[in-house]
Amino acid sequence: xxxxxxxxxxxxxxxxxxxxxxxxxxxxxxxxxxxxxxxxxxxxxxxxxxxxxxxxxxxxxxxxxxxxxxxxxxxxxxxxxxxxxxxxxxxxxxxxxxxxxxxxxxxxxxxxxxxxxxxxxxxxxxxxxxxxxxxxxxxxxxxxxxxxxxxxxxxxxxxxxxxxxxxxxxxxxxxxxxxxxxxxxxxxxxxxxxxxxxxxxxxxxxxxxxxxxxxxxxxxxxxxxxxxxxxxxxxxxxxxxxxxxxxxxxxxxxxxxxxxxxxxxxxxxxxxxxxxxxxxxxxxxxxxxxxxxxxxxxxxxxxxxxxxxxxxxxxxxxxxxxxxxxxxxxxxxxxxxxxxxxxxxxxxxxxxxxxxxxxxxxxxxxxxxxxxxxxxxxxxxxxxxxxxxxxxxxxxxxxxxxxxxxxxxxxxxxxxxx
Length: 418
Hints:
Blueprint: H1 10-16, H2 19-33, H3 36-57, H4 63-85, H5 92-98, H6 119-126, H7 135-143, H8 149-156, H9 160-177, H10 189-208, H11 218-233, H12 238-252, H13 277-293, H14 298-315, H15 320-333, H16 337-351, H17 353-362, H18 368-371, H19 374-386, H20 390-402, H21 407-414
Helix pairs in contact: 2-3, 2-6, 3-4, 6-10, 7-9, 8-9, 10-11, 10-12, 11-12, 12-13, 12-14, 13-14, 14-15, 15-16, 16-17, 16-19, 17-19, 19-20
């Protein structure tokens, strides 16, 4: 299959088709038969033709509509060819049904929303339970965003061959399942949304430690876009807004995480004036929408915790009791090792370092995961230092150092160790 985003110069492609447009067209065409690869090939053909045609004549009033019509015709040629070459039951009526939707395009005006928006169905197809979980975020970034396997591999620090293989298997799986986008017995949006949320958050988290100070670049930028997209397509779903709030608020702090010299700066020492104001305001708006929806889930609670920490840095006065209540709520609905360690840190601010250390000790000390969880050792070193237990604190910090891969954070943790 042609790599969809490599068929033209990147600047040319950016002028031709937006991220929104790519996902809309792929969703419309793939909705017919579940063949994502076939839809990408058809759109690649349309983009190739557009480069030549639009150079000479200029872009049409509705570029997305033009591209959709050309891609749909290319896909129809494939369907007709399949009917001629095989015994597949693809008569003219079936082919017309597969291509239904062209008449819905308002191609006489420049309205970018002229294309019916079926990207939610495409996202849900990418999160099908029969698709391998590691392949789901890759499939979303490829099908919904138009990223190539090489781009995804670079962003997620995976071998390109691994990404290509996973994408190929996942796309074949979607086609083999005969997914009929929008059919209620095949696509239960409500049950798929948690998988969509997890894959987007997973893509974001995979880049968290090593993300650049510019939060709109790379995988972080793609996760920001996808979180906004899902919230836009599911305006009544509180967790979709919660995910968008969490990712936007977290990414907003990236510019302050490193000094000009590249040194690591912990949250407590960050300059809030360096936070990305646009992303912060977007996160706050999504958090308002969480409360409007009337359901606060895991991502909504984590976003509220982020915002409360940020407010404390701005004002110099953190509401630790409220943070503890939020962590208790989070522990009740979505317990996790990271959440438990964070709660211990907050508890130490409310009831003192002994209480925080006791909460850490109460976690499963025999757990291999806990013994390899770097934030737990960083917190332990911090609390032991506050208690004056310097030798134990140094030992905990050395263990944290052994588990730290980011050079700037390693340098920060190394200060004072002999």
